Amino acid sequence: MNILKGTKVTWLGHATVLVEIPSGLNLLIDPFLEHNPSYPKDFQLPEQIDYVLLTHGHMDHIADAVTVAKKHGSTILGIYELTSYLTGKGAEKTIGMNIGGTVSLPGVDVTMVEAKHSSSMQEGNQIIYLGVAAGLVLTVKDGPVLYHTGDTSVFSDMKLIRELYAPEVLMISMGGHFTMGPKEAALAVKYLEPKLILPIHWGTFPPLKGTPEQLAALLPDGKIVARVKPGESM
Length: 234
Ligand code: NI
Ligand code: MN
Description:
Elements: E1 8-11, E2 17-20, E3 26-29, E4 51-53, H1 59-62, H2 65-72, E5 75-79, H3 80-88, E6 94-97, E7 102-105, E8 108-114, E9 120-123, E10 126-129, E11 134-140, E12 145-148, H4 158-165, E13 169-173, H5 182-192, E14 196-200, H6 212-218, E15 224-225
Parallel strand pairs: 3-4, 4-5, 5-6, 12-13, 13-14, 14-15
Antiparallel strand pairs: 1-2, 2-3, 7-8, 8-11, 9-10, 11-12
Helix pairs in contact: 5-6
The structure holds nickel (II) ion and manganese (II) ion.
């Protein structure tokens, strides 16, 4: 698809997305593989995954982060508290950052933006604070601007994200219950004005009832909602 200008975006179920950019860099967002009911089990990840990018510390977003990073030689990028926590869990290479900041990687700038959500891990009956939840904007050199919302409600400052970065490809959580549902996601699309929409964080578990069809029905004509199965690329 022309909007993607050579960047390959593959949905791997839930919020897990593989982004392969023309510079040769491979990025895996929110790896939830082994216990993800919608992960395509026969999918072959690329041998080289340069960066594992994390939106927040909930288990359904970081479950396989350290395992993938060790196996594929990846650097884990996330909010500071989360990368510190994962260092304690065996992560060897990390980049801790925070909301509003940008990290320049070869061929892509990664900006951490706001999300309205929580971020923690439960160990026994302890809740461990892992910073706040975030979204990620990927500005690919000579390519598209991609925005992975992470888990979030809709918020009016999405207009700032539009003004600052103008994302063309929107990976939007829209299953409801823990994140936006279709109604809220439709308003987020109005604020962000993307050209291409990939619905994520839906269908994985019974409470996540929102569907891409429901979202598409709420959008004006001309908005493209990708209908891909886990393991398929846009
Ligand atoms: Ni979450
Ligand atoms: Mn989640």
